[in-house]
């Protein structure tokens, strides 16, 4: 049966499965490192030990997320050689150095100071420990920077020339700061902070509902809720600028996102519908007149190119159309819950039972938005792997379909198990933290001393 499947499609699904799993964990560690640094800063400023108690719990979540991010990233990188050899053959002169910069400036930094951050709290001075936390947070951000530089360059390539079909760098500044990089990097960075905001709020609400009323729980919850309420409007503005940039450099992606079939003026915004690529129409479309033109051109009568302008060179419409709407839908839910939560916590100083339940439901909402946004971006680039330079089909290997299919099944099973284990362990740690809070005198090796930070740590030590 596997012989009848398209090996290119299987290879694409396999890479999508790998990156979908991998991206979950850097999305947490990028922002959580900075949140941990914020907790330490708040303790130093206020002397309130609840901030160190919060640090003690969330540094464990960081460690677990970091470990899964590293191992899944290694697995994903192997596929450049197994399934996509044409990628490095054609654009390796650019992709190779960018990936090397990520290792040299980010991964080594994280690997060097992570041990101090996780296990050195009572073995080094507080300033050294704070410095280690900063360097790990900075390293995760630099890692994201270089990866997104490469990804952005694949969407809006610049600063290179082709010689015998192979890309050679001519201007590294143009490569690094390619046209879509600033918007793509900032959009992803804020997405990471929103993911962590709702993770903080949701897991803290779970502890609160179980009767854990430790000050650190409420402090982390408030941090998450107010961070979410603050950053959602920022993300909406960044998303608008990112959309305008995409319209300029990848108009076929915008046409697929909005299911615009024919080039026209005063294009309506399709809120809901079922795109039919064969019939070149959207069934049961619910539209707002001229709103797409208003959003994308800031002119009610602005012209938008339709998919008819890109015959054979536009992405599959339905996946991009739906992925974008899922992302926006989750974002709107975040906006509502963030504003509601901030209003409740401002008025009552603690969550209501209904708010706590909703926050628990939203714990991993950031993951859903990130994955949907990533699919919108990456499927929206098809049929190109590097826009206008290298197609996905030209980069694929000649590995037979049965081999790809068998490894794909193995990956899916493994990732399903690991994801379920991660979520269950995170909630287990939340339950265990609540139990430990009742017996703060317990102390053990490694990270456990953070749990009783309130028993002996003073502001003088900060």
List the helices and strands and how they pair.
Elements: H1 7-46, H2 50-82, H3 85-119, H4 126-155, E1 160-163, E2 166-169, H5 172-176, H6 181-209, H7 215-249, H8 251-257, E3 264-265, E4 269-276, E5 281-288, H9 291-297, E6 303-304, H10 317-348, H11 353-361, H12 365-379, E7 384-386, E8 390-391, H13 392-395, H14 401-437, H15 453-456
Antiparallel strand pairs: 1-2, 3-6, 4-5, 7-8
Helix pairs in contact: 1-2, 1-4, 1-6, 1-12, 1-14, 2-3, 2-7, 2-14, 3-4, 4-6, 6-7, 6-11, 6-12, 6-14, 7-8, 7-10, 8-10, 10-12
Write up what this structure looks like.
- The protein is mainly alpha-helical.
- The chain has one domain (7-263, 305-457).
- It has 15 helices and eight strands.
- The chain has a two-stranded antiparallel ribbon. It has a two-stranded antiparallel sheet with strand order 3-6. A two-stranded antiparallel ribbon has the order 4-5.
Key traits:
globular; disordered C terminus; 15 helices
Short overview:
By secondary structure, the chain is mainly alpha-helical. It contains 15 helices and eight strands.
Structural class of the helices, strands and pairings?
A: mainly alpha
- What is the count of β-strands? 8
- Per DSSP, the total helix count is 15
Helix content: 55-70%
Helix/strand order, N-terminal first: HHHHEEHHHHEEEHEHHHEEHHH
Q: Beta-strand percentage?
A: 5-15%
């Amino acid at each position: 049966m596997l012989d009848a499947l398209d090996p290119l499609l299987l290879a694409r699904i396999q890479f999508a499965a790998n990156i979908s799993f991998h991206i979950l964990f850097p999305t947490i560690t990028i922002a959580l490192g900075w949140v941990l640094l914020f907790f330490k800063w708040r303790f130093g400023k206020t002397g309130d030990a609840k901030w160190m108690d919060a640090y003690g719990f969330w540094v464990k979540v960081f460690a677990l997320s970091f470990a899964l991010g590293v191992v899944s990233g290694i697995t994903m990188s192997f596929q450049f050689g197994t399934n996509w050899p044409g990628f490095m053959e054609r654009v390796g002169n650019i992709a190779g150095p960018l990936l090397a910069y990520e290792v040299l400036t980010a991964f080594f930094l994280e690997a060097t100071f992570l041990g101090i951050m996780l296990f050195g709290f009572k073995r080094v001075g507080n300033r050294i420990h704070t410095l280690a936390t900063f360097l790990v947070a900075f390293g995760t951000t630099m890692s994201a920077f270089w990866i997104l530089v490469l990804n952005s360059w694949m969407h809006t390539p610049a600063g290179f020339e082709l010689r015998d079909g192979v890309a050679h760098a001519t201007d590294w500044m143009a490569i690094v700061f390619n046209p879509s990089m600033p918007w793509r990097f900032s959009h992803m960075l804020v997405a990471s902070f929103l993911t962590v905001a709702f993770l903080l709020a949701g897991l803290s609400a779970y502890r609160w509902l179980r009767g854990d009323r430790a000050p650190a729980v409420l402090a982390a919850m408030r941090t998450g809720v107010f961070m979410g309420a603050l950053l959602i409007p920022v993300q909406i503005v960044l998303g608008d600028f990112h959309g305008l940039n995409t319209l300029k450099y990848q108009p076929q992606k915008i046409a697929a996102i909005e299911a615009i079939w024919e080039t026209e003026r005063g294009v309506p915004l399709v809120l809901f519908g079922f795109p039919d690529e064969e019939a070149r129409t959207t069934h049961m479309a619910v539209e707002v007149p001229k709103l797409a033109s208003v959003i994308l051109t800031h002119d009610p009568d602005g012209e938008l190119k339709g998919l008819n302008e890109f015959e054979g060179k536009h992405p599959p419409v339905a996946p991009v159309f739906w992925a974008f709407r899922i992302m926006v839908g989750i974002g709107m839910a975040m906006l509502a819950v963030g504003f509601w939560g901030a209003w409740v916590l401002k008025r009552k100083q603690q969550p209501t039972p209904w708010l706590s339940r909703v926050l628990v439901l939203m714990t991993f909402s950031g993951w859903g938005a990130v994955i949907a946004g990533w699919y919108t971006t990456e499927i929206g680039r098809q049929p190109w792997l590097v826009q206008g330079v290298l197609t996905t089909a030209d980069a694929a290997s000649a590995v037979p379909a049965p081999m790809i299919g068998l490894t794909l099944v193995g990956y899916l099973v493994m990732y399903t198990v690991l994801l379920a284990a991660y979520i269950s362990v995170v909630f287990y740690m939340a339950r265990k933290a609540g139990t430990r809070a009742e017996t703060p005198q317990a102390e053990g090796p490694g990270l456990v001393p953070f749990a009783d930070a309130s028993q002996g740590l003073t502001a003088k030590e900060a």
